[in-house]
């Protein structure tokens, strides 16, 4: 006991860290020491455990650690540990560890309760219908939200530990009878081979460790969601879901571009409405990519504009080249987004009014921008929010800027080259499992392609005679 106390006093620095508690007590006639982190345990649970051990007599204590953990410990989740590094990690994770003189192993009681916010609907993944709960930063609560929806013994949740310093908990969630076993083994090996100090940015750090190649391709390899119903649906579809502690979003893999563009609202409405929403999203995504570059190309070649579309021409004087206007507005919109994120809530409304007047009305009157340029860029800015994935929205933005630059410099040839580069970025991109990013379009699978485009009714078996 004395050696253990000296070791953990030196490693945990209990004399300096006010929140790491070391409590010496007696269990029957033996000396005992508790170690736990203040704030991770409920005081009522600690009090009940101490009350129980104060009442234990020497005759009640078995000589073996295994028997004591099974027969005499007044708690459900008790684990026997011997490795000092593992014990240290468990203590810092919030587990209460008990050392009793005369026993060779540590009793780790998982009675932690992390500080957490309430389970509420996420701000980004909102739906018109459906449940209003969402993931939080506590991994145990997130796994419980999935278990609540999939009550099947074949739902597996494996806990992994990543980061030599942070020791971040990562949960591998899948259905044993539906997941691709080969891809599952591949992900498990990649998780075990990760050699990093810490997952400082949670999901993004884990994504970069799992797939470190082809950083220059902006199209995302993973799908993120904060909705438990979306995660459960993907698991039932044979996907793997990775949950990271301290993150309210889960990572879904492998996914194609069609998987990323799906939303929960597609399935909370009747098939006709769901199909309409899905097709609209695809069309708007295409418009956000092509609208401003195509408009710039027609203005460079006004003889191509049909008479019935003559209204797309610039009506006023142009003081700043159109290409420069479009490029400035591309960056200005992102600047407004960043300003909105960092603006205090009480100042959001007045600053929005000021920004609307300055950027909108006065910018046109000053001659910096033309009204038509502001109109088309406003549509593009708003249409970007039809995509639930931030990563896909920015990928389309980068491709649009590339199209603008090539069109402004090389005209029609540059426009065609930009389209080819965008298509190749999608075609040559691969999912984490190595499959085509455009499946089921390339390679073409008619049945799956119809399923991605059209929202079909769920399959069920029913005896009409009954």
TrEMBL record:
Membrane-spanning intervals of the chain: 279-298, 318-339, 375-394, 401-428
Keyword flag Transmembrane: yes
Keywords, alphabetical: Membrane, Transmembrane, Transmembrane helix
Family: Belongs to the GerABKA family.
Protein name, per record: Spore germination protein
């Amino acid at each position: 006991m004395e050696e253990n106390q000296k070791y953990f006093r030196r490693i945990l620095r209990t004399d300096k860290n006010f929140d790491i508690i070391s409590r010496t007590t007696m269990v029957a006639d033996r000396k005992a020491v508790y170690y736990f982190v203040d704030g991770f345990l409920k005081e009522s649970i600690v009090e009940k455990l101490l009350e129980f051990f104060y009442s234990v007599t020497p005759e009640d204590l078995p000589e073996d650690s295994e028997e004591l953990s099974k027969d005499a410990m007044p708690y459900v989740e008790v684990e026997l540990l011997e490795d000092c590094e593992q014990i240290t990690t468990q203590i810092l994770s919030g587990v209460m560890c008990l050392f009793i003189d005369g026993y060779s192993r540590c009793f780790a009681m998982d009675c932690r309760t992390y500080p957490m916010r309430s389970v509420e609907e996420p701000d980004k993944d909102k739906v018109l219908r459906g449940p209003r709960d969402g993931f939080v930063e506590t991994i145990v609560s997130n796994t419980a939200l999935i278990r609540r929806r999939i009550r099947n013994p074949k739902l597996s949740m494996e806990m992994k530990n990543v980061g030599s310093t942070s020791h971040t908990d990562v949960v591998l969630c899948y259905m044993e009878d539906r997941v691709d076993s080969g891809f599952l083994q591949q992900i498990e090996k990649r998780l075990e081979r990760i050699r990093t100090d810490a997952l400082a940015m949670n999901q993004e750090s884990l994504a970069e460790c799992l797939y470190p190649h082809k950083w220059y391709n902006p199209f995302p390899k993973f799908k993120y969601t904060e909705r438990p119903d979306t995660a459960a649906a993907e698991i039932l579809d044979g996907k793997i879901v990775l949950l990271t502690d301290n993150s309210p979003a889960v990572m879904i893999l492998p996914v194609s571009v069609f998987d990323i563009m799906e939303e929960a609202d597609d399935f909370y409405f009747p098939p006709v409405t769901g199909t309409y929403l899905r097709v609209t999203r695809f069309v708007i995504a295409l418009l956000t990519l092509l609208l401003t570059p195509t408009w710039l190309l027609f203005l460079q070649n006004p003889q191509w504009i049909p008479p019935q579309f003559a209204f797309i021409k610039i009506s006023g004087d142009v003081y700043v080249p159109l290409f420069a206007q479009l490029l400035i507005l591309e960056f200005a919109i992102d600047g407004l987004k960043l300003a909105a994120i960092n603006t205090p809530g009480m100042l959001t409304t007045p600053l929005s009014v000021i920004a609307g007047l300055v950027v909108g009305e006065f910018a046109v009157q000053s001659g910096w921008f033309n009204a038509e340029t502001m109109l088309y860029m406003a549509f593009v800015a708003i249409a970007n929010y039809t995509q639930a994935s931030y990563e896909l929205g920015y990928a389309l933005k980068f491709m649009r800027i590339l199209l603008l630059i090539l069109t402004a410099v090389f005209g029609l040839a540059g426009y065609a080259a930009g389209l080819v580069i965008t298509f190749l970025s999608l075609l040559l991109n691969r999912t984490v499992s190595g499959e085509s990013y455009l499946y089921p379009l390339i390679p073409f699978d008619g049945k799956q392609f119809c399923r991605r485009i059209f929202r079909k009714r769920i399959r069920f078996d029913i005896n009409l005679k009954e």
